[in-house]
């Protein structure tokens, strides 16, 4: 059944509140969990379900993303038939416009032999079983399946995301926005399932009438004219649309139960393989509840933090609740707490950087003097 599905990842995402990390890269290629990129989760979810044809629509500043994805080999998508297809559509005036982009590449849809499409973006971190989603969609016989999750922290999380309101029978009655007024709400994950022909029909109607500039927007406006199936996702879900939510997602990964679910429950999460030496720990080093990638040199103290590849942490350094990205160096005597250090930064001797758990300090990709 799943062989008849293709995946579409639209990476034209809202980066307004996470710009310190997207100056030189799209949201999808931001490092997460020490050795992964954000896009790895949704892409691995599709591959684990058996989807062999995935189209990724990205925009400018995509060099790091293209370098990361390559031919798709880590996800077994370097194929003669089907495989990974990347479409770069440039910088749009609005992050949400995708109707024109998809319609412009209609040849890709026409050549693909799959009958069904799963549309998603990369900003929702989860490990979802798309086989179950596909089974639910086909057994329902409905036009569109929308994947949602009931959350209990809507006042502080998932702000600005679409929320689904249902009647007593569990049918979709309206679609709104989470404005942070209630904790218990149903959040739309942005994942849509439909027949490929129905997607083409949406694109044509949206262009003809000018009623919507993106597929999700068209479904939101016209869901009462469609038959909608709702699939309830029960697992861990975290949106990444701001520095705060990015930081929270990384800190959540430090919890064993979250880590086991995200990286193992419905299949492994794959990423680009890099050959590095094992991390070297000095005699005075102390590491507690942290994820440390390979190729590092640790001589100081690290607690509740995520350390990327080839990071150097000097003697007498104290790091707590931090994210240190690849190639950075924290020199002797520095103190870091609640800080995000982007790639290739150098934190000088005895430098003290203190952020807040709700608003962590971000050091962009540059060198501190």
TrEMBL record:
InterPro entries: ADP-Glc_PPase, GlgDAde_trans, GlmU/GlgC-like_hexapep, NTP_transferase_dom, Nucleotide-diphossugar_trans, Trimer_LpxA-like_sf. Keywords: Glycogen biosynthesis, Nucleotidyltransferase, Transferase. The keyword Repeat does not apply. Residues 19-148 form the Nucleotidyl transferase domain. The keyword ATP-binding does not apply. It comes from the Bacteria. One of its GO terms (molecular function) is nucleotidyltransferase activity. Residues 282-348 form the Glucose-1-phosphate adenylyltransferase/Bifunctional protein GlmU-like C-terminal hexapeptide domain. Belongs to the bacterial/plant glucose-1-phosphate adenylyltransferase family. This is Glucose-1-phosphate adenylyltransferase subunit GlgD. It comes from Clostridium malenominatum.
